[in-house]
Amino acid sequence: MTELLAQLRSPILLAATLAAGLQAGTYYTWACGVMPGLAKVDDRTFVSTMTHVNVAIVNPVFMLSFLGAPALAAAAVVASPSGARGWAIAGLALAIGTVAITAAGNVPLNNALADGGSRGAFESAWVALNIARTLTSTAALGCLAWAALRS
Questions:
Q1: DSSP letter string over 72-120?
Q2: Which end of the chain is more exposed for a tag (fewer CB within 10 A), N or C?
Q3: pLDDT 10s digits, 72-108
Q4: Which InterPro entries does UniProt cross-reference here (predicted)?
Q5: pTM for the predicted model, two decimal places
């Protein structure tokens, strides 16, 4: 089994790093472009757009990267040699943190907005949570890339 892990180490670390990068890029784009753009529209347009996007994003491609990032980070922990394992563990913890922020914060806000909630109760909290998951996913990317370099 040790020989198999050694052979799969590089592909696993590469896949984990790529998945973390997809997540970081998604949240970064929302933080830097989408939400600042939506901040300039009227309430009806904002609520309609966010509601439609929140439904559309729950698709197989996004879910594969969303759930795949922590799963691949976990595989990276197992596959990493001792000198890189700490970085892979940090990447895993940060990837799990990203999912936790989304599940505990962004998703309930999305659901409340879809159920008739107000923009005022949604926007600033959602933006803050998105910045938090931008930071955790970007840090996960950095940790996993460093683990790959140290492997």
A1: HHHHHHHHS-HHHHHHHHHHHHHHHHHHHHIIIIIHHHHHHHHTT--HH
A2: N
A3: 999 999 999 999 999 999 999 999 999 999 999 999 9
A4: Anthrone_oxy (IPR013901)
A5: 0.93
